[in-house]
Amino acid sequence: MLMQTHEARLDALRKELGRRGLDGFVIPISDEHMSEYVGSYAQRLKWLTGFGGSAGSAVVLKDKAAMFTDGRYTVQVRDQVDGKLYDYEDVPATSPAKWIADNAANGSRIGYDAWLHGIGWAEAAEKLFAKKGIELVPVDGNPIDAIWDDRPQPSLNHATPHDERLAGRSSADKRAEVADWLKKEGYDATVITALDSVAWLLNLRGTDVDSTPVALSYVLAHADGTAELFIAPEKVTPELTQHLGNAVSVRPRDEFEPALATLSGKTVAVDPQHAVAGIFHALAASGARVVREGDPTVLPKAIKNPTEQQGHRDAQARDGAAVTRFLRWLEIEAPSGKIDELTAAAKLREFRAEGGNLRDLSFDTISAAGPHAALPHYKVDEDSNIPIPPSSIYLVDSGGQYADGTTDITRTVWVGPGEPSAEMVERNTRVLKGHIQLAMQTFPQGTTGGALDALARMHLWAGGVDFNHGTGHGVGSYLSVHEGPQRIAKPNGPYPGSMTELRAGMILSNEPGYYKAGHYGIRIENLVLVVPAQIASEGDYLGFETLTFVPLDRKLVDRSMLSEAEIGWWNRYHEQVRAILAPQLDGEDLAWLERECAPL
Description:
CATH class of the largest domain: Alpha Beta
Number of domains: 3
Largest sheet: 6 strands, mixed
């Protein structure tokens, strides 16, 4: 009989831990690739606790348990997880390892799945526990899998070739670049574990993870330019085999761990940011010399080649037309009070699908009405869904996956009737000024995202307010909507990518915001491409080319707060919006576009 309640599941886990001689267990949201989004088979935390956020973890001890989330999920975790079963703990004020050290008895054996945790976490936890007489134990098989009777199986959908005409480079060329790096550094091989890195290196895509077109697989890349792809045989088609060619051998995914055991005496580079602890353990046991090095595909993947750049522009143009049609529909329908968040999100997807070439959304649409807009990472579902209130702010953060590009856009709009409050207009205008400041900025080569972050906040700071998320993240080419290594964020914040040098060809988001808890939220997001700056300069300077073209809501703008330069940016931007979108629209949609793109 299936366990229906989270209380029954928690009880069953404790009994399973007891059978294994364990006093506790750590449950992250993770898969064997440390992916941001994981397949249904890996949603162990959600099955156990009910928590549906994208970041968090739990610890279960014999007599108590706790949920760990950051500020994004303070409200959601309390809505979804039973407080009688789990304590609510805030990260980074505490962490699973600190909590265990404080709450587990001396001599406790705490289990963890080494194929779901990074090596850094495992080593730090082990060191902390040793001071308290607590043992960290890698489990043989995940205990949750032993009690999850109806656990979904990993996807066996086919992996497909990604056309070189869209990729802009052949897989052979990319593998040769990795091989040159291996030879230069004196390494024999590198383990590629991040799913988007595998997809980029071999020019393949898949449908194994919602919102990210990747296939569950690993790659061992060798210094001679050859590679081994470990993937379920059911996923491999003759077309894929032909695409990969003779230099890539295809092996069953379950042979990956045994293959690591054959690397005795070899020098193997492994990225501790992307590879789970289990890989390090297997290599160490084999007698390989393990070197902790960054994934060699991450930087070249982030620097888009000219073909990928043009693909993004083309995808953005189609996407912009779809979002524009949606915003007109919303303006007409939402003031009735009969449109709810889920209906709006579904309608936006419908417009994207009608625009052509849509493969998937790039993440779950943040369709946020009223006070929900004040939650930066709000996720609407049947339980949280509310009607969009008339006379309120509505925020929609969404994106599409197209074969030629990945999009991500946020628009904040006023839903009538009536007019927004003076405070709403003032706050939105400050967000807009920060967005424009960053969009217009030029900077010397070698500048990091952290050095630019304050530009997006300066006008908010001048008004005594701020926002508690990064200003910009990298974006992939028909890959992950959140792609490293670059980031625009506070240098002392939780985003290490903020210290990465920005290089021509990188794509980032530009998304400052403002959030008044319990009332409303504002965010303005476009994607930008780092390009050589067209200015007279001493040395090499870079700037941003805007890629996203959708009208901004003029009802939320106080023109008197904008400088002449900012008004000039607004008008030039909307001239471009009109030029790119008008050929794709007609009738009332075109008339609405013309109205919204009139000079400010």
